[in-house]
Amino acid sequence: MTQEIKRKLTKQKLIDKGYELINMYGYHAVSIDLIIKEVGLTKGAFYYHFENKHHFVSKIIQERVEKEIHSEFIEPITKRGNPIFILSDLLQEKLINDASLEQNLGSPLTNMIVALSYEHNDYNLKGQLYDVLDQWKVALISLMYRGIEDGYLDRHINTEPVAEFIINSLEGVRTLKRTTNNKALFYNYMEQFKNYLDTLKPAKEEKRYYLDAS
Fold first, then answer.
1. Sign of the CA dihedral 20, 25, 31, 37?
2. Cα(114)–Cα(140) distance, rounded to whole angstroms?
3. Chain-centre distance of CA 47, in angstroms?
4. Which stretches within 26-158 are classed as H helix?
5. Are 46 and 36 in contact (CB under 8 A)?
């Protein structure tokens, strides 16, 4: 194994462990000392790859948070089809079938937004996180435009507020996982979310009846 490969593996090891610890205990509760202790490395190894804790978290956002939102929530909605079915299937997968929800960690994206909203830094950490949200929103808006073109959705829906509502409600219920193991909450949410999606369908044309003039 070359030294370059070793360095890359060390960097990824630090990022993965930092992501895990920060998501579990919160940004302010996790120190550099704790991270290097958990991975069995020295401070020298840490500072070889990262300038400081803020730079470290910036890389975590890029390498873990952003990539996971893409793979879990953006890529599944890039396909063509009925947006109502696509979003319902995604909801089932992420709220009911996803075993990681059993860890009671909530949403990594929301966890970090809350923790870093007032954290002064030179890396625009809050901005990076909101960029991820914007990418997700754009993907949802694109999904809805395709759905409108294909006749699955009402052409009069205001796509941006709908996308924002979907993200905010889904992130909210995922965050509740930190506080409860009540699975009924997720099933009830799914039922109401699907009811909401049904309101996006095209309105049925009114039937017109004409008197026979003969």
1. negative
2. 23
3. 29
4. 32-39, 43-49, 53-60, 66-69, 83-92, 108-116, 125-149
5. yes
Count CB atoms within 10 A of the CB of residue 102. 9
Upper half-sphere CA count for residue 77 (Cβ side, 13 Å): 31
pTM: 0.89
Backbone angle region of 151, left / alpha / beta, with phi > 0 → left and psi within -120 to 50 → alpha:
left
C-alpha distances in Å from residue 185, one per residue of 24, 95, 182, 190: 22, 10, 6, 9
Distance of alpha carbon 197 from alpha carbon 199, whole angstroms: 5
Which of 115, 148, 7, 136 lies closest to 67 in space, CA to CA? 136
Given phi > 0 = left and psi -120 to 50 = alpha, else beta, which region is 119?
Answer: beta
- pLDDT averaged over consecutive 10-residue blocks of the chain (214 residues)? 92 97 94 97 96 98 96 95 95 78 76 94 96 98 97 96 96 86 86 95 60 48
Q: How many residues does the chain have?
A: 214
